Amino acid sequence: MALMRVKFAREAPARWLLHRELMQAIQQSVQAAGLPVATTGTERPRPAMASGHPLAPGHLSRCEYVDFVVCLPITATDFGRRLAPTLPEGIRVLWQGRMPPQTPSLKSAIRGFRYTVWGDFDPARAAAFRSATSWPLPQIRKGRERVLELKLSVPRLHVEPNRVIFDIEVREEGMPKPEEAIASVFGLPLQEAMALPTERTAARLAPPLPRHRSALEQE
């Protein structure tokens, strides 16, 4: 058994897929490509795979990572080459790589994301956010209210003509959705922020654990 990690782009034709629909489409493509991916379940076996943090419907992405458990030898190049033509329109392979043993799961390895949101944003509000010592963000999750410190969750935010670029950190306390951060910083209604074109452009992952050499290799 080995771990194969693949980075996908989610483009306009697939932007409105729910996360589970996106994963189902990739699973079906793996089966159509006849890739040697281990399966889970008994009645309806499905390819064994795990994804990172879900992306909201309507958003684009250049960094949707998925891990696959491969059960027969295959190179990363062949894995990507066979998978690519079976994917539906709007889902594209950007990179693939075989990961070292004991690589942490994607959800534990992902440290943060970078987003670009297109629109007309006031640089003064961005400057006010950057200079503030605290910026509480109330959230409702599973019927309960909590408050995130947005200054800790968004360490970088920069306004350019017709767009804003910002980072969101993955923290134990939770993380804001990009539209929540935009609505809070720029004083927009949440529904208006949700309608702005948004793309997840990069993910920051912890480096893989170093491979420990066996005693025989060290001699």
Key features of this structure:
219 residues; alpha+beta; Alpha-Beta Plaits; 2 domains; two-stranded antiparallel sheet; 8 helices; 35% strand
Report on the architecture of this protein:
The protein has 219 residues and is α+β, with helices and mostly antiparallel strands. The chain has two domains: 2-103, Alpha-Beta Plaits, CATH 3.30.70.580; 111-205. Helix content is 26%, strand content 35%. The protein contains eight helices and twelve strands. The strands form three sheets. Strands 1, 4, 5, 6, 7, 10, 11 and 12 form an eight-stranded mixed beta sheet that branches. A two-stranded antiparallel ribbon has the order 2-3. The chain has a two-stranded antiparallel sheet with strand order 8-9. The model is unreliable at 212-219 (pLDDT under 50).
How would you summarize what this structure contains?
The protein has 219 residues and is α+β, with helices and mostly antiparallel strands.
If you average the pLDDT, what whole number results?
91
User: Which regions contain 5 or more consecutive residues with pLDDT less than 50?
Assistant: 212-219
Terminal CA distance? 27 Å
CATH C-level of the largest domain: Alpha Beta
Helix content: 25-40%
Broad structural category: alpha+beta
Report Rg.
20 Å
Shape: elongated
Number of strands: 12
Tell me the CATH architecture of the largest domain. 2-Layer Sandwich
What would you give as the CATH superfamily of the largest domain? Answer: Pseudouridine synthase I, catalytic domain, N-terminal subdomain
CATH topology of the largest domain: Alpha-Beta Plaits
- Give the H and E element order: EHEEEEHEHEHEEHEEHHEH
Proportion of beta-strand residues: 25-35%
Number of domains: 2
Total number of helices: 8
Main sheet summary: 8 strands, mixed
